[in-house]
# Entry
Amino acid sequence: MNPSTIAIVKQTVPLISASGNDITQQFYTFLFDENPQLKHVFNMANQASGKQQSSLASAILGYAANIDKLEALGPVVERIAAKHFTLDIQPEHYPIVGRNLLKAIRKVLGEDVATDEVISAWSDAYGHLADILIGVEKNLYEAAADHGWVGFKAFNVDRKVEQSSEITSFYLTPADGKPLPEFHPGQYLSLEVKSDSFPYTELRQYSLSDSSNKDYYRISVKKEPAPQENTPHGLVSNHLHADINVGDTLQVHVPGGDFLLKNTDKPLVLISGGVGITPLLSMLNDLTKRGDNRPIVWLHGTRNKATHAFKEHLNMLDADLPNLTKVVCYEDISHAEMGVDYNYSGYINTDMLSDLCPEDAEYYFCGPMPFMKAIYSQLKQLNINEEQLHYEVFGPNEAL
# Structure
């Protein structure tokens, strides 16, 4: 990019920041009016809640603020590209998005502010970012093609196992009977789900909850309740629990995602809340399979005994692995036995983290957003370096 483009984009950051959500809301209005078929690609529940608009606004601002030092955005680019790959986003989608984004900027800011010069600079900047993402995604698509798997393909539900009062595992086997490509623990699957009761095709991502093998993939899905009164429950998760049974077929994309264990022999701390257990369990199972004997601390928080998923499996690992320290916290200890079901009443806290976790450990955490923010804050209070913190946000990426 030329220096004048960089200068103009950085100068407009305060204006974009002040109107970020208005711009992204207008963008999605333009996008879906022009391309209604894209409602089958985007998560319309996140559109209704405003999460997708907020996430896009943050991404735009992050890019603009760092446009003169794009190396700082490396991890974010990898995360966005991984998500695009699992949604099967193609190079031809980028001009559609860019055109409507520029229209939205001009509409919200007005032609006096969003002059031809400003729009031209943002067009160049967007094109540069698109080229970067297309290049990263091209590598992901080529790697998938090497395994003979392009886009979505049919998988059969081989088993359906209830793990708790709200989490059910689905064991998925390829309908074509071909061996499955390996995945990295922490990655996820995209499902393309259709139903006569759905207004659109729905795409959802679910973390793989077991180590990699050639025979099946396992996802473990929480049946999402309505987040508050007068709002709908989780459309796809409830459909999977109620309507998808053994023998049914689902369309599945090759695994993707960038929430991966670093290549290091440092101690590990795995911290999960609720269904956030799934990617971390995949990591723990993989480490166990490989005979990794480094110190591992497992911290898990859940509401009560009924919601505690994978309890028996983790108790077995705790008994078998001398290098594993397992601690489980319940909000409600009714009908639960300390030492068998749980270890602490209440929430994971800084004292617990300080007492149990090695200072030089790599920390991986996942769970509901309030849980994630609390854990992140506690780890920062303990002066854990940012480079040691790794996390996965379910849904549109949000800042902690």
In short: The chain has a mean pLDDT of 92. The first strand starts at residue 152 and ends at 162. The chain is about 40% helix and 20% strand.
